[in-house]
Amino acid sequence: MINSSLKQLGEMLQAKKISSVELTQTFLDRIQQYNPSINAYIALDEAKTLAQAKAADARIADGNVAPLTGIPIAQKDIFCAKGWQTTCGSKMLANFIAPYDAHIITQFDAAGAVNLGKTNMDEFAMGSSNETSYFGGVKNPWSFDRVPGGSSGGSAAAVAARLCAAATGTDTGGSIRQPASLCGFTGLKPTYGAVSRYGMIAFASSLDQAGPMAKSAEDCALMMNVMAGFDERDSTSLNREKEDYTRALYNSNPTKPLQGLKVGLPKEYFSEGLDASVGKVIEAAIAEYKKLGAEIVDISLPNTGLSIPVYYVLAPAEASSNLSRYDGVRYGHRAAEYTDLMDMYNKSRAEGFGAEVKRRILIGTYVLSAGYYDAYYLKAQQIRRLIAQDFVEAFKKCDVIMGPAAPSTAFKAGEKVDDPVAMYLQDIYTISTNLAGLPGMSIPAGFAQSDDGVSLPVGLQIIGNYFDEARMLNVAHQYQQVTDWHERMPELVLPKEVK
C-alpha cells in the first residue's frame, strides 16, 4: 500500500477497501519507526492529523469525494498552516505557530487531503543538501551517510522512504528537482506564478515557486490540479483558467505515444562538470525516448554558465530584503539579554540566523548598496534577460528540453559544507529555469554507482515552455509506462542502536 499511486489510493478509499484513518495511521507508524534516523519531519501532530483523516472518512461516506480526499500529504515547513509550528528550518522561527493557512494548505484542505506533518528543510530554503537546517540534517533514505539534496530535503526523504503518500516543496534554484534526482522520485517546479505564494515564507520572491513531490508524473498531475490556480492575495499569481493537468496522460498513441515530439539536448548540459556515470544514465533515458517516437534535436543555451553567478547576486539581494523583517521585535527570535535597541537587533539576528543565511544576507546587502547596485544587481538582471532569451530561441526548435537535473548522485554529508561554491554548483542545471520562470521537473531515470560502490538514483530533467506542464507531465508519464525506476524504493536499514 505504501508504494501505491495517489490514483490507486484514492480508488481504495472510495471503494472503502481502506479508511483514511487506517491509511494515515500506516504512515504515522512508519514515521515513528524511521523518522528518528532520517529526520525528515520537524513537526508532527497526530491528533490534528487523525482528526483530518476522520473528517475525510465522513466526507467519503457522504459521497463528497475529490481525487485526493483522505490521502496523507506532507507539507514543507515553509508553508504556514494554522495552529502548526512553522519554522522554515530556522531558530529564528523555532517557536512560531502560524495563525493562518498558506494558499496551498487551504487548497489541500478543500480537497479533503490530510496534513501528515511539516517536513525538514534548509534554513529559509538556502541550501542544496539540507545541512543548514536548525533542526539537523536529513538523511538520504538510499544511503544514510549521504544528503537528500535541498532545500526540500525533508519532503524528498519522506517521499523516497514512503513516509507519506506525497509531499509539497518549493523551488527557488532547484530545491524540488535536485532532491528529486538525489532521492529517486518525481518533482515538478511549475511556471512562476502558476501556484500562489501566499503564506509561503519568502526567500527570493521573483524566483520562489511551490510544486509537487511524488512518486510519479501522474501523482504530480493530480497534485497540480489542487495546487495551481489564481489567488488574488499573491500579486504574482497569474489569472488563468484552471486546467486539468492529467488531461494528456491517457490520450496517446499506444505504440509511439510521443511520435513527433521534439526533444532539445543543450550541449552545455553534457560538458565538463557532469559525472560520467550520471551522463550514461541520462543517455540511456534519451535512447528510451527515441523508442517512444521522440525526435532528438541539438540545441544551445549559451549563457547557462552565467546562471550561478547571476543567481547568487539576485537571490541574496531579495533575501536580504525579505529577511530584514526578522528583528526580534515584529517577528522571530529575540535575544534574552541586550543593552539597548541596536544591541537587541544585533544579538537577535546573530543568534537567530545560521551561517549560510548570514552569508547570503551580507552578499545581498552588499550588491544593493550605493555604488555597487549598477555593477552587480543591475548587471545580473540584464544577464537574466539573456538567459531567458536563450530558452525563447531553444523552444523555436523543440517542444521540451532534457538533460541531467544534478551533476552527480547524492554526495556524503559534510563533503561540501565548507565549500559554498562546490555546493552552489549542484544547481548548475536547474537555476537557469528559475531565472527564466519556466517549468521544470526531474524524474527517476536509473542508478549510478558511487566511488565506494553504492547504487544511487539519477534524475532526468525535463524543461518545458511557459504553462506547458500538462505536456511535460505526459512526456514523463509515457516514460514511466515503459520503465519502473519511479517504483523503486530504498531498503531502509536502520542503525543498530535504533532497531
UniProtKB/TrEMBL annotation:
GO terms for cellular component: glutamyl-tRNA(Gln) amidotransferase complex. Its EC number is 6.3.5.7. It catalyses: L-glutamyl-tRNA(Gln) + L-glutamine + ATP + H2O = L-glutaminyl-tRNA(Gln) + L-glutamate + ADP + phosphate + H(+). Residues 22-473 form the Amidase domain. The keyword Protein biosynthesis applies. GO terms for biological process: translation. Keywords: ATP-binding, Ligase, Nucleotide-binding, Protein biosynthesis, Transferase. The keyword ATP-binding applies. GO terms for molecular function: ATP binding; glutaminyl-tRNA synthase (glutamine-hydrolyzing) activity; transferase activity. The active site is at K76, S151, S175. Allows the formation of correctly charged Gln-tRNA(Gln) through the transamidation of misacylated Glu-tRNA(Gln) in organisms which lack glutaminyl-tRNA synthetase. The reaction takes place in the presence of glutamine and ATP through an activated gamma-phospho-Glu-tRNA(Gln). Belongs to the amidase family. GatA subfamily. Heterotrimer of A, B and C subunits. This is Glutamyl-tRNA(Gln) amidotransferase subunit A. It comes from Methylotenera versatilis (strain 301). The gene is gatA.
